[in-house]
Amino acid sequence: MLKSMQIPSLLATAGSERTANGAQASGLRAVVLTGFMGAGKTTLGRLLAAELGWEFRDLDTEIAQDSGMTVADIFRAEGEAGFRAREMEMLARLLRRERMVLALGGGAVESEGVREQLAACKDACVVYLSAPLEALVQRCLEQPGAAERPVLADRERLRSRWAARLPYYEQAHLRLETEGLSPAESLQALIALVKQRPLPDNAPMSAHE
Ligand SMILES: Nc1ncnc2c1ncn2[C@@H]1O[C@H](COP(=O)(O)OP(=O)(O)O)[C@@H](O)[C@H]1O
Ligand SMILES: O=C(O)C1=C[C@@H](OP(=O)(O)O)[C@@H](O)[C@H](O)C1
Ligand SMILES: [Mg+2]
Predict the structure, then answer these.
(1) Cα–Cα distance between 141 and 119 in angstroms, integer?
(2) What fold, for 6-197?
(3) CA 10, CA 125: separation in Å to the nearest integer?
C-alpha cells in the first residue's frame, strides 16, 4: 500500500536515474493514464516517461504489435468484444513491469476485468486525464488517422459511451483537467498535480472527496 508523499517524492526530482530508483524503493512501479479518446494519454504518457526516465508503453500499440493487426482491423475482424479481451490480457502482462508509464485505451475501463486489475495493483498510480467531450472530439479530428478510430466513427453513441465511462475514469487516484492547456502545459500540470496532492493511501480519488 502506498503511503503519503511517495508520489510527490517520485516527481519532485523527475528525470534522473536516481529518481526512478527512488521511486522503485518507495514501492511505486507504474503510472497508468486513463481517460476518453483525445485526452492525451498517449501524448502525455510518452512525455511523462521521458521526464521520469521510465519506459513508456501504450496498450493499443502493444496489442497491435502482439496481434500484427491495427486496432481498427481487430474491431473489424473480432468485434469490439475481441478487442476488449485483448486489452484485458495485455494489461495483465504489462502490469508486471516496473518503472513504466502506461497509456490505456479510452475504452479499457469498460471491462470489469481491467477495473479489477487496476484496483488490485496497489503499487501503480492511476491518473484520469479529463476534458469536455467536445474538446476531446475536436482533438481527435485534428489528428491524422482520425477516420481509423472505430469508436470515434460511431458518432451517435459517442456521448452515451463517454457518460457511461465517466464513473470508471473517476475511480482513478488523481485527475487532471486538460481543457485549454497545451500538451506541454498539461505535462507540467500533471507533475504539479501529483506533487501537490499527497494521498494518505492508494485509494481511488472518490474516496478522498
Ligand atoms: N492539453 C492537452 N493535453 C494533451 N493532449 C493535447 C492537449 N491539447 C491538445 N492535445 C492534442 O490532443 C491529442 C491527444 O491525442 P492522444 O495523445 O492520442 O490521446 P489519447 O491517447 O488519450 O486518445 C494530441 O494530438 C495532442 O497533441
Ligand atoms: O475509446 C475507445 O473505446 C478506444 C480508444 C482508443 O484508444 P485511445 O483512447 O488512446 O484513443 C483505442 O483503444 C480504440 O480505438 C478504442
Ligand atoms: Mg492513445
Answers:
(1) 32
(2) Rossmann fold (3.40.50)
(3) 11
Q: Retrieve residue 82's grid coordinates.
A: 475481441
151 φ/ψ sector (left φ>0, alpha ψ -120 to 50, else beta): alpha
Q: If you take atom 2 of ligand 2, which residue's CA is the nearest one?
A: 107
pLDDT tens-digit series, residues 15-57: 333 344 334 444 678 999 999 999 999 999 999 998 888 999 9
The rounded distance, in Å, linking the Cα atoms of 35 and 165 is: 9
Show me where the domains of the chain are located.
6-197
Ligand 1 atom having least distance to the Cα of 179: 1
CA of 141 to the centre of ligand 3 (A): 14
What is the whole-number distance in angstroms between the Cα of residue 128 and the centre of ligand 2? 14
Atom number, ligand 1, closest to the C-alpha of residue 182: 1
